[in-house]
Design a protein that fits this description.
By secondary structure, the protein is mostly helical. The chain is about 80% helix and about 5% strand. A two-stranded antiparallel sheet has the order 1-2. About 30% of the residues are buried.
């Protein structure tokens, strides 16, 4: 698989001939398909419902971890990446440990997610600050815009799109961290579910629209310059 196809897949795009398009199926595939959505939503939902009924961290964590392990087994049965399954199992194990350790609380189950969002947001922000916005490389691989680092207006557009991603991960933290410190466990679980796969799919769709506009505007610029040179 080429670099272009890898980037396209991660952004929810499908290849049709030489063109890239955003379809419902390609977008669904980029967030793990139906299984990925269920995997993102159901454990947090089970955690919230179980905790609301039992007020027991053990039962809530057990419900969430049990579902997560089932999804991992399904991925293994479908011959998905073993590494991906092991990473998922490690993440679930860490979350369960934090919630059930001495002095832990139910909401600690969501702490690893805070660090994950902070890491992604920080890397993206640093890429903007050093004028190498990560979404610029997406434009380069997808549309051949190799000159974006030398073209300041174009680079600024990629910086804006990258900052949208920074805002996405930051918003997760701004909403969820206060709920964690307020010990609003059920609300935190609900926020985690809503701001997971559904919100991420929306981000991918918005990113594609913005990247496509950039690509189309540059195509018009190239056409205009070529026409000007021809008539000159």
């Amino acid at each position: 698989m080429s670099k272009r196809e890898q980037v396209a897949g991660r952004l929810g795009l499908a290849k049709e001939g030489e063109d890239l398009v955003l379809t419902s199926s390609s977008l669904l595939a980029s967030i793990g398909g139906p299984l990925g959505i269920l995997e993102a939503v159901l454990p947090a939902t089970a955690f919230s419902v179980t905790y609301g009924l039992s007020r027991s961290a053990i039962w809530a964590v057990s419900a969430a971890v049990g579902l997560s392990c089932i999804f991992i087994l399904i991925r293994l049965f479908q011959r998905k990446s073993l590494m991906q399954a092991l990473i998922g199992l490690g993440a679930v194990g860490l979350a369960a440990f934090l919630a059930l350790r001495d002095g832990g609380q139910a909401s600690d189950y969501f702490v690893p997610g805070f660090f994950t969002n902070a890491a992604y947001g920080s890397v993206l922000l640093v890429s903007v600050l050093i004028k190498r916005p990560i979404l610029g490389y997406a434009g380069q691989f997808l549309f051949g815009l190799d000159h974006w680092r030398r073209d300041k207006p174009l680079r600024r557009k990629f910086q804006v799109i990258t900052l949208i991603w920074v805002a996405f991960f930051s918003l997760r933290l701004l909403v969820q961290v206060p709920l964690y410190f307020a010990d609003l466990v059920e609300q935190l679980a609900l926020a985690r579910a809503i701001m997971g796969a559904p919100a991420y799919a929306g981000l991918l769709a918005l990113t594609w629209v913005l990247l496509r506009r950039i690509q189309q505007s540059k195509a018009v610029d190239y056409s205009s310059n070529s026409g000007g040179n021809t008539h000159g």
